[in-house]
Amino acid sequence: MRRILTCLIGLILMTQTATANNIPIQEVKSPGGITAWLVEDHMVPVVSLQFAVRGGSSLDPQDKAGLANLVASTLDEGAGDLDAENFHKLLEDNSIYLSFSASRDEFRGGVKTLVANADMAWEMLSLAITWPRFDAAEVARVKEQIISDIQNNYSDPQWAAYRTMNNTIFAGHSYRLPGAGFEHTVTKLTPDDLRQWMQERMARDELLVAVSGDITADQLAPLLDKIFGGLPEKSKPFTLPEVKLQAAGKNFIIQRAVPQTKLVMVQPAVARADPDWYPATIINYVLGGGGFNSRLMLEVREKRGLTYGVDTQVQHYDHANIMVVGAATSNETAAQAVDLIKAEWQKMADSGVTAEELKDAQTYLTGALPLALTSTDKIADFVLQLQLEHLGMHYPQERLEKLNAVTAEDVARAAKRLLNTQALTLIAVGDPVGIKAEKLPDPAQTRGVK
């Protein structure tokens, strides 16, 4: 039955692939020289704009960890003459969705609006990024919310596993710092810190813009100056070193009196520009990224019932690339689950994939893109990501062609090169039986610092 369902899904995806892989992206330049990538779609009177400036939370000073996140969390808490209450009321009254976020490598913002309310939406976005208020009372309130969220994480084994992973493999690099910061660093952040961040980071030289929906290039060009023209021309220059992953092949335990052990395993992955990126994408899907069709789910969950779920994912950053395995199992079966994961890791390295696995992966991966681009904001976000990763306007079609060109021999070669059980770092949170590992302090006791 599963095989039939997979085939049916594949047929559906294949019928939509051609359209999605020919996204009509056009470049628009404003009179003031601001560039955006635009995908016009006049079927529905909605427009979405997404933007980013390079340089995210990884640029936060260690004693001000959480700064970029706090900026993102307070930019919509009043701007210009509008206090937080009136700012939010205008957004709600005009059905405007405005959001900001900070990740390791970039700071993002976005707005989605009905065409009828677009003028108001552009004005609200412009106000937020050029004249944010950062009123002391609102900043204090948001800081309390963030600190509360940080404290709530302490009891979560998954948080403890990933916090330990970041502290361990990214040791010595700013990638180890949590984007939300620590209790003690967020507590000390001030409105002046936020204003300084805006002066240093929110500038036109690192600005990328993507727009999708019911708007033409001629309409968009002058709007770019209206929205972003008030930003400084230059941001503060920055450089970040490449990450040298630490603790390869080591096992660590965070001891907790809980009935299950949370397992996280991680090793280096390939960069986007690597010739083996597309074979590695197939490897990830077959090994653990393909949900119930993946090898790890079949071996660890279905055949032996050791977990409700186990998966792999490739995390791609500007200065690091990692492949991560995540699972949870009973304390008594933790060692068995680890051994099974490593066995499948080695099996893939030794033998690659079958012809059937390759075809299923190609069908899904090439067909999944249309299902991901179902709204103007998702399309704008995708087009923005193309810019952030230097992939070019023709990437969707190139991706289709390169994925379909991958052979079983390519996968076998890449798997032998990339997968290495000796390089896997293991973090186990719980009271696992049979795992030999170094015990580390519980990050809940150190407030996430180590």
Question: Can you describe this structure?
Answer:
The protein is 45% helix and 18% strand. It is of the alpha+beta class. It has two domains: 204 residues, Metalloenzyme, LuxS/M16 peptidase-like (Cytochrome Bc1 Complex, Chain A, domain 1, 2-Layer Sandwich), CATH 3.30.830.10; 189 residues, 2-Layer Sandwich (Cytochrome Bc1 Complex, Chain A, domain 1), CATH 3.30.830. α4 packs parallel to α9 and α10 packs across α16. The radius of gyration is 23 Å and the shape is globular. The N and C termini lie far apart (48 Å). The N terminus is likely disordered.
Lay out the secondary structure.
Blueprint (H helix, E strand, L loop, with lengths): L1 H19 L5 E4 L5 E6 L5 E9 L12 H8 L9 H10 L3 E6 L3 E9 L3 H13 L5 H18 L3 H13 L13 H6 L2 H11 L5 E7 L3 H12 L22 E5 L4 E9 L8 H13 L5 H8 L7 E7 L4 E10 L3 H18 L3 H18 L3 H13 L6 H11 L2 H11 L6 E6 L7 E2 L11
Parallel strand pairs: 2-6, 7-11, 7-12
Antiparallel strand pairs: 1-2, 3-5, 3-6, 4-5, 8-10, 8-11, 9-10
Helix pairs in contact: 1-13, 2-8, 4-9, 10-16, 11-12, 12-16, 13-15
What is Rg? 23 Å
Q: Assign the CATH superfamily of the largest domain.
A: Metalloenzyme, LuxS/M16 peptidase-like
Task: Tally the helices.
Answer: 16
What is the H-and-E element order?
Answer: HEEEHHEEHHHHHEHEEHHEEHHHHHEE
Instruction: Kindly name the structural category.
Output: alpha+beta
**CATH architectural grouping of the largest domain:** 2-Layer Sandwich
Q: Sheet with the most strands?
A: 6 strands, mixed
